[in-house]
Amino acid sequence: MNNNAQEIATQFVQHYYTTFDTNRSQLAGLYRDTSALTFETSQVAGVASIVEKLTSLPFERLQHRTSSVEAQPVAGGSAILILVTGQLLVDQESNPLSFAQAFTLAQDASGQWYVANDIFKLVYA
Amino acid sequence: MNNNAQEIATQFVQHYYTTFDTNRSQLAGLYRDTSALTFETSQVAGVASIVEKLTSLPFERLQHRTSSVEAQPVAGGSAILILVTGQLLVDQESNPLSFAQAFTLAQDASGQWYVANDIFKLVYA
């Protein structure tokens, strides 16, 4: 199960940041109405509010570079915990920012994994 | 529920790092046999293996300084997701290391919160 969780997490993370960095509004498909997002200190819940928050972030171009992706099954495998660390390149800035992001993924009735919990924080040295 | 999760998380995190920095073997009381720990790239499970891992880390003195503690209820409130960011002072080193740590807390039959999942990563700028 650990290997399976890691595999699902790795695929999810790649898809998530590719979508984030190319077309943020498409992230809607990865959340559900029970999902929660903490972005820095802002908390929002539900697909519409989450997508509004993510698409209104005040930068034009973003590039996430992941340094590590660690995953564990939660509650016997019904969910997955992921901790990502990495760097964020914003607009024309040449100095990347470090970030950490924790997700829990859950499965909907059709078996599709979605983001149940999402906490994003910049990490300052 | 968000406020309650945040309150439980804040108290837990304070207790966890105080115990970690003063007497690591006492962390045993915060895990259960179903708990999982990822420390950097090592994965261990169960109280005995987790405590063995934590007490055998090759440093004498540690000080965790938390910069942020963000929490969300998981799965309707049966569990709590926590993302901590902070800095770690090791032994005589004067330059702190940045870290991120994700926990899920669950409640045992007696209602006590324990660490179900724990992922610790150093964050490099």
UniProtKB/TrEMBL annotation, chains A, B:
User: Which PROSITE patterns does the entry link to?
Assistant: NTF2_DOMAIN
Check the record and name the Pfam families matching this protein: NTF2
Indicate where this protein resides in the cell. Cytoplasm; Nucleus
Identify the residues that the record assigns to the NTF2 domain, covering every copy: 8-122
Query: Which Gene3D superfamilies has this protein been placed in?
Result: 3.10.450.50
The record's annotation in SUPFAM superfamilies points to: NTF2-like (SSF54427)
Show the InterPro entries listed in the entry: NTF2, NTF2-like_dom_sf, NTF2_dom, Nuclear_transport_factor_2_euk
Looking at the keywords, is Magnesium present? no
Chief location of this protein?
Answer: cytoplasm
Has the keyword Heme been applied to this entry? no
The UniProt keywords, alphabetically, are: Cytoplasm, Nucleus, Protein transport, Transport
State the superkingdom.
Eukaryota
PANTHER family given for it? NUCLEAR TRANSPORT FACTOR 2
Question: Function, please?
Answer: Has a role in nuclear-cytoplasmic transport of proteins and mRNAs.
What is this protein's name? Nuclear transport factor 2
Q: Which organism is it from?
A: Humicola insolens (Soft-rot fungus)
